[in-house]
């Protein structure tokens, strides 16, 4: 279904570019059905070379799109909606906001309340079609919701949630990828200290983290169940885990998640 839909990403920054890359990896998606806008279009030259429409006119982009993704900063959402309002057709178009902390109610205060509007929170793994995306909406019909799910399934895996959980989804899914990367960096640093060069340490850590994630997904087990298989009595694994806990590893992770969540609410 999504292969026949015209999509515009207004304010195509890092996240928008990741979504665009994910869509273009689909064999059935025509680059001509994708439009990207940005004040400075130079960073989008690579997309233009692939046949994607690239320009600075948000109104034109909105006018010819079936699905309009807003990739702008939260403080610019109302301004952009006001700008493109005259080009919107509430009966035919869907709007998807990627902005953190901007509610559906706030968007409906600017545009026609009949316009079917979604909020979505993917992460930068969309670039390789491995994002987790949480979406919410109030008045979409099943066909419309399925269309948006298919769009984001093109770049990974999609979950529908209640809007009250969107900020939490931002922290766990979007901010969360940075938490995992920081953990990986620390593992690599440890690997270097115990004797590996940085390239080899990176390869070992990358595959270890990928394997751990796939184990959770494919076996559908709790992390502790898998940890129990690795920790033997008086072994080196349990010694390392206990030392990390003594240094506040789990506590620091939880506190970081909560700190990010509280920041969104301010």
Automatic annotation (TrEMBL):
Its EC number is 1.5.1.2. Pathway: Amino-acid biosynthesis; L-proline biosynthesis; L-proline from L-glutamate 5-semialdehyde: step 1/1. It catalyses: L-proline + NADP(+) = (S)-1-pyrroline-5-carboxylate + NADPH + 2 H(+); L-proline + NAD(+) = (S)-1-pyrroline-5-carboxylate + NADH + 2 H(+). NADP(+) binds at residues 10-15. GO terms for molecular function: pyrroline-5-carboxylate reductase activity. SUPFAM superfamilies: 6-phosphogluconate dehydrogenase C-terminal domain-like, NAD(P)-binding Rossmann-fold domains. Catalyzes the reduction of 1-pyrroline-5-carboxylate (PCA) to L-proline. Belongs to the pyrroline-5-carboxylate reductase family. This is Pyrroline-5-carboxylate reductase. It comes from Algoriphagus alkaliphilus.
């Amino acid at each position: 279904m999504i292969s026949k839909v015209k999509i515009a990403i207004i304010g195509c920054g890092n996240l928008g570019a990741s979504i665009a890359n994910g869509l273009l990896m689909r064999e059935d998606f025509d680059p001509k059905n994708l439009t990207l806008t940005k004040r400075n279009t130079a960073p989008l030259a690579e997309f233009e070379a692939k046949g994607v429409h690239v320009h600075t006119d948000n109104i034109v982009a909105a006018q010819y799109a079936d699905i309009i993704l807003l990739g702008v900063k939260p403080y610019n959402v109302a301004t952009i909606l006001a700008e493109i309002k005259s080009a919107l057709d509430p009966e035919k178009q869907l709007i998807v906001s990627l902005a953190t902390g901007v509610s559906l109610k706030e968007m409906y205060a600017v545009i026609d309340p009949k316009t079917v509007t979604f909020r979505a929170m993917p992460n930068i793994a969309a670039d390789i079609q491995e994002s987790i995306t949480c979406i919410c909406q109030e008045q979409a019909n099943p066909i419309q919701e399925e269309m948006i799910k298919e769009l984001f399934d093109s770049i990974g895996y999609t979950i529908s949630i209640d809007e009250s959980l969107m900020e939490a989804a931002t922290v766990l899914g979007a901010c969360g990828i940075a938490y995992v990367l920081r953990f990986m960096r620390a593992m690599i640093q440890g690997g270097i200290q115990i004797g590996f060069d940085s390239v080899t340490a990176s390869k070992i850590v990358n595959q270890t983290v990928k394997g751990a994630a796939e184990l959770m997904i494919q076996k559908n087990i709790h992390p502790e169940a898998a940890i129990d298989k690795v920790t033997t009595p008086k072994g080196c694994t349990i010694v390392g885990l206990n030392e990390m806990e003594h240094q506040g590893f789990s506590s620091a992770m939880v506190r970081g998640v909560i700190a990010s969540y509280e920041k969104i609410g301010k």
